[in-house]
């Protein structure tokens, strides 16, 4: 005889292949705590509203807490042949309590139960991801404080462009991560809506108290439309989108670290604990962590596309397609947490090589703009100053000299306005120090960026 909760309508057993195809317990089992917490709140409300007897409500709550304790301790294992985690818990409750256990599902559907569980689960996941993002930002801040005057070349088009500091470069990523934190927190707010009471699609005829369940489970409000309550997966898509942007930032940073630890740059050196070797080349020290982050970014993008494509053709209300939301969003959050957990200590333990950064900054004529600005401050139009400086760079290239090494006589051949003080204007340290505007690379301004970042981190803590 079938053990399916919904078997009454059917005259024959479901084919085993359909059971296997239909089952979701292999991936939704991770929500067992949230499923039980939601059921406890539902049973509490049913008893308080007199929909079931208070003694039965208390018995159900006790049974559910016993199942939770047994699952947590390992005394009870989730049946891999169960249809899903929701049916497993209800079946186990019924096994323990008999007919009383069968009353738990009064005034709810599996549709609104699933919608509740995944919101509760993802709320906790967002909190954990935000915590990791905050740790990463604090790691960047610490690195920046130690490198306020570490001059390095800034790049555009992957060509040396203008001098900045390593601290300034790091704080650019801190700003990206602050936006990621904000996006995740905004996603949490829109996710924190309680759908239970929506039923299968059209609510229920029982006199339930949805607000009571909402309060018990710590939601901000109840969903306003029962059709939307069971069929909404915007919050999964929004979270996958926020996580995808976060992964994009990690991937950009990873790309730079891969470049920086190469012999061609050698701006940093990764700790041995966060690098790997080669099976054939004994000299190799490979940045596998950052390479994997680049690769895993595309995986998270795939999860986002899975969710978008899954939802684009589903009519109201619930459809079985939506079972595929969990593998995609679970994979996205698992992946970003794994990347953050590894990236943070890798960054914290890497060795900065300031001499190499300074040496690279001395080449490439990255103080050419400052040379042009020197002439502008002497009264020349910028376009004329730009042309003269470009000609000076050509002379330097021809003579294998830098602007700092070029004799004043060569400067004066192109423009009599040049004086000895030009060398002060193009000194790399001065080039950075004089960019003392809000958001600029001057140490004074980077300190303000650090203070701003710390303030933003502390606002919600």
Would you list the SSEs in sequence order as H and E?
HHHHHHHEEHEHEHHEHHEHHHHHHH
> What is the CA-based Rg, rounded?
31 Å
Q: Report the end-to-end length measured between terminal Cα atoms.
A: 55 Å
Shape: elongated
Number of helices: 20
Mean pLDDT: 95
Approximately how much beta-strand content do the residues carry? under 5%
- Number of spatially distinct domains: 3
Q: At the third CATH level, what is the topology name of the largest domain?
A: Fumarase C, Chain A, domain 2
- State the low-pLDDT regions, or none: none
Helix fraction, binned, reads 55-70%
CATH superfamily of the largest domain: Fumarase/aspartase (Central domain)
Most strands sheet = 2 strands, antiparallel
Walk me through the topology.
Blueprint: H1 16-22, H2 25-28, H3 32-48, H4 54-73, H5 85-97, H6 99-102, H7 110-145, E1 151-156, E2 159-165, H8 166-191, E3 193-194, H9 210-216, E4 221-222, H10 226-231, H11 234-260, E5 268-269, H12 288-311, H13 325-349, E6 351-352, H14 354-362, H15 368-377, H16 382-399, H17 408-414, H18 422-425, H19 428-433, H20 443-459
Parallel strand pairs: 3-4
Antiparallel strand pairs: 1-2, 5-6
In short:
The chain is mainly alpha-helical and 461 residues long. Helices cover 62% and strands 5% of the residues. It folds into three domains: 20-106, Fumarase/aspartase (N-terminal domain) (Fumarase C, Chain B, domain 1), CATH 1.10.275; 111-359, Fumarase C, Chain A, domain 2, CATH 1.20.200.10; 368-426, Ribonucleotide Reductase Protein R1, domain 1 (Orthogonal Bundle).
């Amino acid at each position: 005889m079938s053990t399916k909760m919904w078997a009454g309508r059917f005259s024959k057993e479901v084919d085993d292949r359909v059971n296997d195809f239909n089952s979701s317990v292999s991936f939704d089992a991770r929500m067992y705590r949230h499923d039980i917490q939601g059921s406890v709140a539902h049973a509490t409300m049913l008893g308080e509203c007199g929909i079931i007897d208070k003694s039965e409500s208390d018995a159900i709550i006790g049974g559910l807490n016993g199942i939770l304790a047994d699952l947590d301790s390992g005394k009870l294992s989730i049946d891999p042949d169960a249809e899903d985690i929701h049916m497993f818990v209800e079946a186990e409750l019924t096994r323990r309590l008999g007919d009383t256990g069968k009353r738990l599902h009064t005034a709810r559907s599996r549709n609104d139960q699933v919608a509740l569980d995944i919101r509760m689960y993802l709320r906790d996941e967002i909190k954990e991801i935000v915590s990791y993002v905050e740790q990463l930002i604090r790691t960047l801040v610490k690195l920046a404080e130690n490198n306020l005057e570490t001059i390095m070349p800034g790049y555009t088009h992957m060509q040396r462009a203008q001098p900045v500091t390593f601290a300034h470069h790091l704080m650019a990523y801190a700003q990206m991560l602050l936006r990621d934190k904000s996006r995740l927190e905004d996603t949490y707010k829109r996710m924190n809506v309680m759908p239970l009471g929506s039923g299968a699609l059209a609510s229920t005829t029982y006199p339930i108290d949805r607000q009571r369940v909402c309060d018990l489970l710590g939601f901000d409000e109840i969903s306003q439309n029962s059709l939307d309550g069971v069929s909404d997966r915007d919050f999964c898509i929004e979270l996958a989108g926020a996580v995808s942007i976060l992964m994009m930032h990690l991937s950009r940073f990873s790309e730079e670290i891969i470049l920086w630890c190469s012999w061609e740059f050698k701006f940093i050196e990764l700790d041995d604990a966060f690098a790997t070797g080669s099976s054939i080349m004994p000299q190799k020290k490979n940045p596998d962590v950052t390479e994997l982050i680049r690769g895993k970014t595309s995986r998270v993008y795939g999860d986002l596309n899975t969710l978008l494509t899954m939802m684009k053709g589903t009519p109201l209300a619930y459809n079985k397609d939506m079972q595929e939301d969990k593998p995609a969003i679970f994979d996205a959050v698992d992946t970003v947490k794994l990347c953050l957990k590894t990236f943070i200590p890798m960054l914290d333990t890497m060795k900065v090589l300031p001499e190499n950064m300074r040496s690279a900054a001395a080449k490439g004529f990255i103080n050419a703009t400052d040379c042009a600005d020197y002439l502008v401050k002497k009264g020349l139009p910028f376009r004329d100053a730009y042309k003269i400086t470009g000609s000076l760079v050509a002379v330097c290239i021809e003579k294998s000299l830098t602007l700092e090494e070029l004799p004043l006589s060569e400067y004066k051949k192109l423009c009599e306005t040049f004086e000895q003080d030009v060398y002060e204007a193009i000194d790399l340290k001065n080039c950075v120090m004089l960019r003392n505007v809000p958001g600029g690379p001057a140490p004074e301004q980077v300190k303000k960026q650090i203070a701003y970042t710390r303030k933003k981190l502390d606002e919600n803590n």
